């Protein structure tokens, strides 16, 4: 079961089955202690912040750094996909993949939040010019 964890040194919050061994922020070893969701919510100030398209693009751009894929240079394609992603967020509360259907089971549908784990897609893996299912990300 996933739980919340707080770094007792820098108060970074982690959500997961296990905490990271090394705090990614302060680099202290074995620094995480379990906390309640109420504490996590306070620390993170989870008060309905949203991300507009520009912020989302910046975030996924940073996500590609150090990875073998990039955002598709085809700007029109990206624009269309972003419209779908943001439409899904508006309708269903999450940035679900614009080209696949959700199951309405939250845990299951987390696999469809963009960026998904597209490295396992047939359209990506073992391909020189591989791309995610929708082509938002392509190999460098
Ligand atoms: S297939 Fe591409 S566009 Fe769809 S969720 Fe995955 S990364 Fe995003
Ligand atoms: Zn820390």
Would you give an account of this structure?
The protein has four helices and five strands; from the N terminus they run E-E-E-H-H-E-H-H-E. Strand 1 (3-7) and strand 2 form a beta hairpin. It has two domains: 3-44, Rubrerythrin, domain 2, CATH 2.20.28.10; 53-139, Ferredoxin thioredoxin reductase catalytic beta subunit (Ferredoxin Thioredoxin Reductase, Alpha-Beta Complex). Helix content is 30%, strand content 14%. The protein binds iron/sulfur cluster and zinc ion. Residues 7, 9-10, 12, 23, 25-26, 28, 31 line the site of zinc ion.
**What proportion of the residues form beta strands (DSSP E)?**
5-15%
Helical stretch count?
4
pLDDT averaged over residues: 93
Query: How many separate structural domains?
Result: 2
SSE topology sketch:
Elements: E1 3-7, E2 13-16, E3 32-35, H1 37-44, H2 53-64, E4 69-71, H3 75-92, H4 106-109, E5 137-139
Antiparallel strand pairs: 1-2, 1-3, 4-5
Zinc ion binds next to loops.
Give me some keywords for this one.
140 residues, Ferredoxin Thioredoxin Reductase, two-stranded antiparallel sheet, 2 domains, 14% strand, alpha+beta, globular, binds iron/sulfur cluster, Rubrerythrin, domain 2, three-stranded antiparallel beta sheet, single chain
Short description:
This protein is of the alpha+beta class and 140 residues long. The protein has helices spanning 37-44, 53-64, 75-92, 106-109; strands at residues 3-7, 13-16, 32-35, 69-71, 137-139. It folds into 2 domains: 3-44, Single Sheet (Rubrerythrin, domain 2), CATH 2.20.28; 53-139, Ferredoxin Thioredoxin Reductase, CATH 3.90.460.10.
